[in-house]
Design brief:
By secondary structure, this protein is α/β, with parallel strands linked by helices. It has 11 helices and 21 strands. A hairpin with a 2-residue loop joins strand 15 and strand 16 (about 265). Helix 5 (about 270-285) packs antiparallel against helix 6 (about 310-320). The mean pLDDT is about 90.
Length: about 450
């Protein structure tokens, strides 16, 4: 049984058996063909035996005849395409054809992770593919199943590697690193971040450091450059300055019913969590302090604003562990918690969603109280599927009715923005896919205007 367990029959063998059945049927009608068919069948059985011997022969140097390994990161980024690699090594003395089936976690609901490759003796090959998770949590990978065929190709031998690997899916840290890298090189405009002219300039000296691409040439320190050039070659040195004030920036994340809607397989809650991670990292880079507060039918976790080393790791872990039952959100509890725990005037970025003006009016008293003590920025979502419906021409009465209702909902979204502005409340109405870029843009705008 141990020998038979990794043994599988190839498609070529099944077709060959069907051909022999037809030949034996023909030999029954024409008896003169029967001895020839018997001889061919005996040779065919001998080929099967040789194929089995080639696949299950032992290596003289006591090494495995075939090896495979899956290279998967210790954690995956939610909502992003994460690269994975399968490495194959052939130690057979002949060329083999390989079929690889990777047992990916059930959360992906995919049954098409099948690859084929041909490897020469002593050849190593890497197969790369991508997975895009849409939920946070733990994902369990199964085995890497490799089915090896010899040049005869009648039988397969299965090898299994990398059994039982658990990987955590965190909020979009790949997106966070992308924004961090582009911010460091002054290339945020490549992903939709606008260049905003800053009013005034802080002149609080921080350090002298080497020039990097994107730095202001007006801050070149020529004396330090000349000293550095004498001893270590020509290297431009600049004066680095820091902002005079470090302001608290809090992301208030609504985990209630309105954040359950899915867009491109991610819920609005996960879009908000990913944007909060990126914004917190940008705020810390801008010398501000970042904090997180979550709520639904009650107030969840509160992470006080800070910018010390290791604080981003705390934010990442807090956002990763967010769970919710998508109950009705309690804004009164939110206001009470903010009043109790956030004493200093701060920038509050409220990630929520309002579908109608009446829904916003129910929460407006609490929003006005928050805006009285802090700078409040309400971020809610445009229904992109509704926008697709409105962009299509109507061809019958039913579609005209649907477009009319859709126009009403779209108008109410714009009306919410206007009503919030009447009470001095900043707001962003954005499509889910543009949430991060629009939020960072607004934060940089408020900072450049000196509002925080």
């Amino acid at each position: 049984m141990t020998f038979l367990r990794p043994l599988f029959i190839a498609t070529r063998l099944w077709f060959s058996l069907i051909a022999f059945v037809l030949l034996f049927v023909a030999a029954y009608a024409f008896p003169v063909l029967f001895p020839l068919v018997q001889l061919l069948f005996a040779a065919f059985m001998l080929l099967i035996a040789i194929d089995g011997w080639l696949l299950f022969r032992k290596n003289k140097v006591k090494k495995p005849v075939f090896f495979a390994r899956r290279d998967v990161p210790d954690r995956l980024s939610n909502g992003d395409a994460n690269p994975l690699t399968i490495y194959l090594e052939n130690y057979y003395p002949f060329r083999v054809n390989v079929e690889i089936i990777d047992e990916i976690p059930f959360q992906f609901q995919r049954r098409d992770v099948l690859f084929r490759a041909g490897l020469n003796p002593r050849e190593t090959r890497a197969i790369r593919y991508e997975l895009r998770p849409t939920r946070r949590g733990e994902y369990s990978f199964g085995a890497v199943n490799t089915f090896v065929l010899s040049p005869i190709g009648l039988l397969k031998r299965r090898f299994q590697f990398e059994e039982g690997k658990m990987v955590a899916v965190y909020p979009s840290f790949l997106q966070m690193r992308q924004y961090e890298l582009l911010a460091a090189t002054n290339r945020l405009n490549e992903i939709g971040i606008k260049r905003i002219r800053r009013i005034g300039h802080s002149m609080e000296f921080e350090q002298v450091r080497p020039y990097s691409t994107g730095d202001d040439v007006r801050t070149v320190n020529w004396k330090a450059t000349s000293r550095r050039s004498d001893s270590q070659g020509a290297t431009l040195m600049i004066n680095a300055y820091q902002d005079e004030r470090s302001q608290p920036v809090y992301c208030l994340i609504d985990k209630g019913r309105v954040m359950q809607s899915p867009f491109d397989e991610l819920t609005l809650l996960d879009y908000a969590i990913n944007a909060s991670l990126v914004l917190s990292n940008i705020a810390i880079q801008k010398q501000d302090r970042a904090g997180i507060l979550t709520f639904s039918d009650h107030v969840g976790q509160l992470l006080p604003a800070d910018n010390r080393t290791g604080h981003m790791l705390k934010i990442l872990e807090l956002l990763y562990r967010q769970k919710t039952k998508f109950q009705e959100s309690d804004y009164e509890s939110l206001y009470a918690s903010v009043r109790r725990h956030i004493r200093q005037r701060s920038l509050l970025l409220l990630f929520t969603n309002f579908e109608t003006v009446n829904a916003m009016h129910r929460q407006l008293p609490f929003l006005r109280r928050l805006a009285k003590d802090h700078l409040l920025l309400v971020i809610f979502f445009e229904n992109t599927e509704l926008r697709d419906l409105l962009d299509k021409p109507a061809t019958d009465t039913e579609q005209i009715y649907l477009k009319t209702i859709g126009e009403k909902f779209a108008f109410e979204k714009k009306q919410i923005v206007k009503e919030l502005a009447q009470y001095g409340i900043q707001s962003i109405l954005t499509a889910p896919k543009n949430l991060t870029a629009n939020t960072v843009n607004k934060y940089l705008e408020l900072k450049a205007r000196g509002m925080i």
